[in-house]
Structure formats: structure tokens, C-alpha cells
Amino acid sequence: MAQQQQRPISNRPISFLNRNGLFLLLLALLFLLGVYLPLSEAPLFLFPNRTSPSSSPSPSFVVSDWRDYSLAQAAKFVAKNGTVIVCSVSYPFLPFLNNWLISISRQKHHEKVLVIAEDYALLYKVNEKWPGHAVLIPPALDPKAAHHFGSQGFYNLTSRRPQHLLDILELGYNVMYNDVDMVWLQDPFKYLQGNHDVYFMDDMTAIKPLNHSHGLPPSRNGVTYVCSCMIFLRCTSGAKLLLKKWVEEIRAQPWSNTEAKKPHDQPAFNRALHKTTQIDVYLLPQSAFPSGGLYFKNQKWVNETKGKHVIVHNNYIVGYNNKLKRFQDFGLWLVDDHSHQSPLGKIE
């Protein structure tokens, strides 16, 4: 029987329906994705089930550029049990953001964190390391101008805070706000007892009894000194009313370089608390949420309340390097030795 002459291999048609063809097509696709995605400035998400190194799923929608990523998309992505944890930060404070995230990660709440980036450098850096967890609400600010306390740039950054929080409440979520010069030592959600509209900490250094009242602190010269740097707001009409009043108070006293004491968001928050009588407030226990003026300056009180501290705020000190050194001196600068515990990882 004559042997049938084979057609030269080079002339054979390649069928992409057979096993070899599908395998080659898959390899080509993986190659293209492997080359393109790491080089792109803002990744294009195509796979809803892809996970980042922090085991956080990527957004299930397509993001062609992080500038197009909306607050509604971001809040929906990070919210857990109807709650979002928010910070508002500019690029120079990226190391402090990472330090804060390490402490939150230790308490297993980092997946609900949304970083409101105030400049594009931070927006892209966070989403490069931790996709979907940073959003920018225009306009972007000058990161260098927002770096210094008391400057107009700093005021511009902090004065946007109540509107950011109100926008998240309007989307239907509870929201916890933190400044990034904070460190979590325990889980703060265990202390959010009851169903109050707003929870906050006192910023005074005077020592309160352990069983102090949880109502609005008594005013001194008609002014309370509640801290606007750690707030939890439930999605209630009372909380929304407070934030609207806070926005009004900030707009009523714009920043001015000629004033002896430059305005910022915290006095406006205290005025809003006094003028919004229809809200149910809750003052968090001082032993768990002390001001930096108490925690870092009263060692006797720290020893007496050992084991009760939940969130430590590195305030009552001005300057980036001063805050950094104090965290280091008290063993609260976690970035150097524990960056692997942050969803951002080690940042060069």
C-alpha cells in the first residue's frame, strides 16, 4: 500500500480550536498581560477574582485610569458590614500612612480602609501597591503645601474633611475617620457602644475619672475641645446634620494669614457640635482614647491605665520629624521592622 504523502508542516493550517492552538493562545495572552500591566501607570482591571498580595480582591469593574475611580465605587469596594474607615492624606505623609495601616492590619480591619488621596502621586502609589483602596476627590492639592501645620495648604486639606465624610454617609455607609499620626493598640470598634450618631475623643490633657460621662464635655469659656481627628459617624440624619453644620462653620471662617491663631477644622467641629442640638453624641473613654498631650507627657497616668489604651494620637507636637522621633522613642514607629504587616508592604 502506497504511503500517503504528508503536507509540509509550514503549509498546514493552524486551528485555534484544537488543544495546542488554545494553549499557544493562552500563553500569548499571559505574556501580554505580564508585560503590559506592570508597566502601566494605572492598571486596567479585567479579572474580578484576582487578588492582591494583601488578599484584597481587585474591583470587579474596569478601571482604565485611577483618575476615573469614583468615591461611590471605592466605598462600595472597601465597605465591610456597612462601614468604611477613612483617612485623608497627602504624599509626604506616606510613611505615616503605612505606619497607621500596620496597626490597623494587626486588628484585622485594614480591608475596610479607604485612603482619600489629596494628590495624584499618593493616589497612584497606594493603588499600585493596594489596588482599589485609594480615591481622589477633585481638585487635587499641592502635596508640598499641605505638609506644614498652620499653612494654607494644611488648612485646605483639613477643611475638605467634613464634606468627604458627608459624601460617604450620603452613600449609605457608617464611617470612621482617623488622622494617620495615630496607632491602634486594640480594636476600637468594641468601644462604639449603643447606637449614637457620632463618637469622638476629648483632646484635653486634664485627667478624667475612669467612669467619666460620655456626653459632650463641659465647655471652658464657652468652647469644648473635642478632637476632630478620630470620629465615628453612623449613617443617621443626626450625623449628616452635624457634618453639614461643620461644613458651614468652616466656610464661615476661611483661612487668613493675618490672624494670630489661624483657623482649622477642629474649632469649626466644636462649634458645630454646640449648634447641632438634634444629635446623639458619645464621648469615648479617655483611658482608651487619650490625647497625645496626655499619653506622651504623663508617664504616671500611662502606667496607671496600662492595658486600656486603644488608639494613641501623636498630637500636641508640631513637625513631621518631631512626630516621627516621638513614635520611635515610644516604640510606636512600626514601619522599619514590620512593613510586611502593611497592605502597602515596604515602600522605598
TrEMBL record:
GO terms for molecular function: UDP-xylosyltransferase activity. GO terms for biological process: rhamnogalacturonan II biosynthetic process. Pfam families: Nucleotid_trans (PF03407). Its EC number is 2.4.2.-. The chain crosses the membrane at residues 21-39. Keywords: Cell wall biogenesis/degradation, Glycosyltransferase, Golgi apparatus, Membrane, Signal-anchor, Transferase, Transmembrane, Transmembrane helix. It is a single-pass type II membrane protein. GO terms for cellular component: Golgi apparatus; Golgi membrane. Residues 109-327 form the Nucleotide-diphospho-sugar transferase domain. It is found in: Golgi apparatus membrane. The keyword Ribosomal protein does not apply. Belongs to the glycosyltransferase 77 family. This is Glycosyltransferase. It comes from Brassica campestris.
